[in-house]
Amino acid sequence: MTNARQTPDIAWERLDRLYRDTILDHARRPRNRTPLPAPGARAHVLNPFCGDEVFVDLSFGDGRVSAVSVRSNGCAVCQASASMMSELLTGRNAGEMQALADRFARMMRGAALTEAERASLGEAAALAGVALFPTRVKCALLAWSTLDEALEG
Question: Using CA atoms, how far apart are residues 14 and 32, in angstroms rounded to an integer?
């Protein structure tokens, strides 16, 4: 094998490892889990088939999220997705959050995103590979569905 051929394979392997490490880090050490005392929006969604559940609390100031709490119980994919989503919400208005949720759902359904769209998802873009496992897509989408419920509230 030539050196030019090895380089993309090595780069892909490193990227795959980075993504796995990112997902595991969020699953093991979820962010923004402290419940909010008086949220402006709140939702709880339970997947009765697997037991995964997500709680979302949002506080607003000037029409934008000023504080967020996302608590999840369930598989690593569900917990990582919830944690990653929580890091994206502060400072966003409802329209911006809905656009992120729609973009994430498109990614989970296997749609090709532009580089800018992937970048807007932050670390949640690391979950793109979940689209290859249809039984896990619902796990990745649960937090985002809970966000939708909170916004509709």
Answer: 28
pLDDT for the residue numbered 20: 85
CATH code of the domain covering residue 56: 3.90.1010.10
3-state class (DSSP) for residue 67: strand
Structural domain of 11? 3-152
Q: How many domains does the chain have?
A: 1
The pLDDT of residue 3: 47
Query: What's the maximum distance between 2 C-alpha atoms anywhere in the chain?
Result: 61
The one-letter amino acid code at 27 reads: A
What is the distance between the alpha carbons of residues 90 and 59, in angstroms, rounded to a whole number?
9
Q: How many helices (H) and strands (E) does the chain have?
A: 5, 3
Token pair for 116: 């800018």
pLDDT, block means (10 residues), the chain with 153 residues:
55 61 94 97 96 98 98 96 98 98 97 97 94 93 98 91
Tell me how far CA of residue 5 lies from CA of 1, 2, 11, 82, 88, in angstroms: 7, 5, 11, 37, 37
